Amino acid sequence: MAKILVTGGCGYIGSHTIIDLIENGFDVISIDNYSRSTNIALNGIEKITGKKIKNYSVDLKNFDETQAVFMEHTDIDGIIHFAAYKAVGESVDQPILYYENNLIGLINLLKCVQEFGVPNIVFSSSCTVYGNPDVIPVTEKSPIKPAESPYGATKQMGEVILKDFTKATATNAILLRYFNPVGAHPSINIGELPVGKPQNLVPAITQTAIGKLPKMKVHGNDYDTIDGSCIRDYIHVSDIAHAHTLAIQYLANEKNETACDTFNLGTGDGVSVLEAIHTFEKVSGIKLNYEIGPRRAGDVVAIYANNDAAVIKLGWKINYGITEMMDTAWKWELKLKAISDSK
Fold first, then answer.
1. Is 304 a known active-site residue?
2. For the packed helices 105-116 and 150-168, what is the interaxial angle rounded to 10 degrees?
3. pTM for the complete prediction?
């Protein structure tokens, strides 16, 4: 079995990807320092797959600790790099935190990739690299415009670093620019578990509906969109996870066209914030307590993907729609409440 290192493996997308990798025959180890996650995901992974995952509680900003993982595992065949801070609003308020964490962690990881000759790496990028696009849907060839947030800027810089790195080494990379992952694993054994107040739409919706939050805020209803709220491309986390497995297989089979290929991961459908809220209300039968607030710094107006490249080249497909996304997210929130109530 090929051995894959997943950084940020206890996080939301990382944990779902570990499950998908195991189900496709890979041996997996994880690095996650729990700064934005907990070990709850590891228990869920074991429930679903029957496999106990070894996680190293290592901060990638610490080179020596990071290197020690590679010294213990000299047979790593590929890396999927998720470990990064990812809240747009927080990045606007604390830019240095984001530049330090997201870039130094990547650089230290790549030093180890070079030292130990790891052949393949998949990088967790983002649609934020497109900034406020002139034309939607965006393709991989759409212009990279100024980032609207420090978070988006770290993803732009990360892509540049990887492109330069693959030119200078024998390592190949894939940049996966994904849009807005939501939902939970169909088993409802793992899902999104934000630390502190949720920064993303769907956990804010479910936590408001369950009563953890008194109300939620829609950031602006005066944009030039169908209903004045921002438009995003929401995609089920399990669909996103499987794309990472396909990307690792793509590199392992030497199908990549360049040393650093790029793919958009989105459904291709733009859904407004208010449309997402109304879909949740329909799925759950709950009227959500929300209010319209001012625009939030760092938000782009509207963005969704052209995913033709991933569908054609990676063989990727979308299995879940917005209804299933909201349904699994809500069931996960209900499960968390049941667990909390039983304690």
1. no
2. 20
3. 0.96
